[in-house]
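Homework-ish question, so no full write-ups if that breaks the rules, but can someone show me the predicted structure for this set?
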Amino acid sequence: MFIEAFMTPSASKLAFASASIATLALLLVGIALAAPDSERNSTTPPPQSPIQSLRITPDSLTLSDARDIQHLLVIGQCADGQRIDLTAEADFSTADSIVTPLPGGAIRPARAGKTLVIVKARGLEARVPVEVRSAAIATVGFVRDVEPILARAGCNAGTCHGAAKGKEGFKLSLRGYDPDYDYRALIDDLGSRRFNRVEPDNSLMLLKPAGGVPHEGGRMLRTDSDYYAVIRQWIAEGTRQQDLSARAVAIDLLPADIHLSVAGQSHHILVRARYADGSVRDVTNEAVISSNNTEVLEVKDNSVKALRRGEGAVLVRYEGNYATREVFVMGERSAFRDDWASMPELNFIDHHTQAKWHEMKIKPSELCTDAEFIRRVSLDLTGQPPSAEKLKAFLADKTPSQEKRAKVIEELLASEAFIECWTNKWCDLLQVNSKSLGPKSLFMFRAWIRDQIEQNLPYDQFVRKLLLARGSSFQNPEVNYYRALQTPEKTQEKTSEDITQTFLGIRFNCNHCHDHPFERWTQKQYYDFASYFASLSFKKGHLVEETIVYENPDGGVQLHPKTKAAVDPMVPYGSAADFKTAPDRREPMVRWLTSTDNPYFAKSYANRVWSYFFGKGIIDPVDDIRAGNPPSNAALLDALSADFISHKFDVRQLMRTIVSSRTYQLSVASNEWNVDDKVNFSHALPRRLSAEQLVDAVGVATGYRPKFKGMPENMRAAEVPDAMVDGADVLALFGRPKRSSACECERTSNFSLIHAINLVNGSTIGQACAIPDSRIVKITTSTPDDKTVIDELYLAILNRPATDTEKSLDLGKGPDRIPAAQDLAWALMNSPAFLFNR
Amino acid sequence: MKRHRAPIQHLFTAIRGLPLCAVALSLFLSAPQSAAENPSPISFEKQVLPLFNAACAGCHQPGKLKGGLDLTTFKGTMTGGKNGLIVKPSAPELSALITQITGDTPEMPAKGDPLTKAEVAIITQWVKEGAKDDSAPLVATAGGALPGPAPLTAPPVYSVPPVISAMAFSPDGSMLAVSGYYEVLLHRTDGSGIAARLLGGSPRILAMSFSADGKKLATSGGAPAQYGHIQVWDVEHRTLSGSWKYTADTLFGITFSPDGSQLAFGCADKSSRVISAADGKELVKLDQHTDWCLGAVFTIDGKRLLTAGRDQAMKLSSLANSQFIDDVNNPLEPIFCIARSPGEDIVAYGGALGGVKTYQIADNQKRTAGRNDTNLLKDFERQPAAVNAIAWNRDATQIAVASEGEARVYDAKTGSRLATLPGHEGGIFAISFSPDGKRIATGGYDGIVRIFEIPSGKVIAAFVAVPIGTK
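A: Not a homework solution, just the prediction itself:
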């Protein structure tokens, strides 16, 4: 069979003697399907072993009415464990007319009865028992049948009628989260403008998408489609409304694993909805299926196609339910050799990253040098590079590399600079700014944060203290967090949004106005959660600028914006104790939030901390955790969270674990097999120094520190308490946040022309080079040997010794020597090796 | 060569009488065939324009003019857009119209499904044949308005009741006019049934108004996203005395001028217009609103026009010089319906959020930052849903309000609720007081006319407005 079908004369001439026929056939198919792609790794499929059997999913079907079209997936099982989707090429037939097979593996009922669908592919055959209980046309329900079509056709997309203001006077709820609203829009507007029950085909809601009348959104429905027929029937049956209980309660996405190894290969997927009454329905044709990474995966016609090597996920949504399936596209890696298998694991992190590298056929980079390590770890843990003295001592130390690296990690974790660096970071996260707090409270709150970090207060206790804060802003400065989140109106809403984003890494700002478009979070949950803060009240204290934060039992209530009804506090998932039994309604919520059982609490912070050391979270962005944004290495993140919890939320221990891993200590230099890796941490990613790091690095290297108005001399940039401080413009330019948002994205790290101009012409580096008492001048004056001066400058600025070639530079004599050294320092500070953490 | 052609020629002869087949065949053979040999040239009006309508006119229409292009007429097609001409007759390969819609990923249409190969072939062939115009010339009526579509010649047959979107008692109280599908039904108010079925050319009638003497009945409506239509019937003779088209969408909220000579209505193109009730001549076109205009009423003296719409504003304009005078209200919600008091320059509006308010029809010059709604007279209780229709009784003491499920009657001065009129399923889109003020008729989504006694609120009658299943 194989030979007849695929062994063409030209193919037989090819020199693939050892390859099996099936492999050869696949190879040809693969070549034919591959997108034109100049990338070396994408076009040639790997050798595959022959298909041994067909597996059909599901293995039997029960069809309950005329529109109950169900899909079959035909999977070819290969000897090597590969599973290849054969649905598109399979032949479906039946001996009678009980069902009609349609293209793409769909089975449509024709009349009641039982039959077998015979599936043939690649010379193999499988039989699927099918029962048609009834082939009668069932009544159409708005929620169950019509609303999903509006989503699938894209009518209620954010760019169309789902926009906040709708389009052309017709507004639907975004992606159909509110079927009652959509029903009203279709039925009531302008005297029932959109349907015509006398002549259903002349209904505006059919004429528009079918091209019967002009429609800016174009033609979306064919008049001969099932979608059109369903809407038409609904109108003819009297446009009945349907209870929301008709919505699906969960969806299943099949298959469990999607194997796509090379570009051009595709795989059908199948979506089934489950209902409260226990029934299950195939909704593959109605679900909205998309790709979260359109460079790697393309979704079309219920099928996902690999475009190039990489990782992506298929996202499916249906009536507020979400499902995702991650897909790895290996690409052509036949020349890859797992020759780094003996690389030692320094801790559990390496175990999980290495597992992923093996799986993805990635070869990690080598370890970075000691000089690279101390610069990187000093910047990451303390926000500033090592001094030249410390660097020299470290390099001169003859202890084995890992031992002395461990030692320097401990020194840095115990340093004052560490405390300053992380106080500054927490001031970002907690939005510590004088505009919201006033100058005195600003300093007091910052000092409070600094104390907690100095004591290394466990993270869960820190959050509990912060979120249960009450009393005077002078006596209990932690209440300032609530003051910072306070807005003239609706305090509890911003509070609720920012707390979920900061401490759970989930974005509730979307479901402020509508159900979250990419996740299960609903608008109701937003207000339920906000209700925990509804009775939080603020009043003036006796002292100037003093504010008292207190729980007012008669305080405000949280109203739902649509129903205008007061909502009781409730957590969005899991369960919390009844708020009524607590003296402060926040208590049960805070206990729930900081619990080790909370799947987001430890994980979101472990992930956030990870991102500070790698420039990218395992889930990224770190504060947008959702099904459609899966972790690049779930096992790693789970292990990291578990380790964080088992060490009782010890943040320094978490950081110690991260920087002690081999993964953290990899070089920035990539190799042939990891150059395209951007998500698996197989090499270090160069990261531009943050605003504070940049200014402090200049300070460490040259001794020059800019003066911030009203602040002590020689202050580190990381110690500047507020964005409003005069003289801090350079910090703003390089992306220091204003601290008015809970989003990690408020801090920017891009590098553009304006930054380059500042560095080349501005005072940030220019002043540091020009001042008469800089380290540059001191070293040059006190050291007659040019080579030593140059070496010292390289050590101080780039944190590495100069090479012999670099040292061969002639600094000149007399009055030109100091300017020459200053020019060299200026050039070094303008180099990427200085401006980036590598 | 000759031998091969003969059977094809023979085939043509055989099916010459069937134009559709011939078209299909000519497409099939298109490549070697010259235009001259084609027995049936492509019709711009019947074949090309419907494709433009389906796939292009969402954006390339007079209201949007994306790319400066209007593809709703032959003239617009040949004029082209801001990038110049799009049709080079007889040269499809040089016509942007064709190059934009062909290729693996055609540039156009920007949204929705691309044109099929067969559709592209029709348009291409039309250009190849010289891009000729065969559309019937538009002949305006004597007054300059475009004639309305031909009225139905036989009454529609209903299997289900249509939604009732407009209703009005005749001034003498003898009849209740109710909107149907392509018709207005005149019901006798004595309960003896349908007096007449006034057939017309509008599938939807959204508002209706009797002239003060009861001799004329004017309606505004049309077909959504197709045309707006004003119809005027001679009530006594049951004849359609006026039928004119305006704009490309339905028309709203028609009212007579106090002297009965003019009609005013709102349009989906955001304008409001005043026309002659005799010949449809457009007398005034006002472009004050920023969204659909849904209602227009004359002041008592007939010299000013108050218009309202989805942009939340009620705007007062002078008809003498078409000048905008002022915004009458502080905008708070889209306004769905307005009605002027029979005796005074006072307007009542119903809003999208369920608001019902009365305003003095005057400029708002006394407004300050603190008090910016100086014309507001009464803010009535909020309705359970959007207010779709509103009406005054003849002595201007009561206001009837239609929203969803129930209608309500209020004392116009005090705002107190006088009656609640329940029973409808879904939205109520039409409400009318009988001239003696003792009855209110309501109708809407459920297609049933309900007549209530006022102020008791008792249902006097409830019936389906159209005959079901019979002619």
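Now go work out the reasoning yourself. Hint: The first helix of chain B runs from residue 2 to 15.
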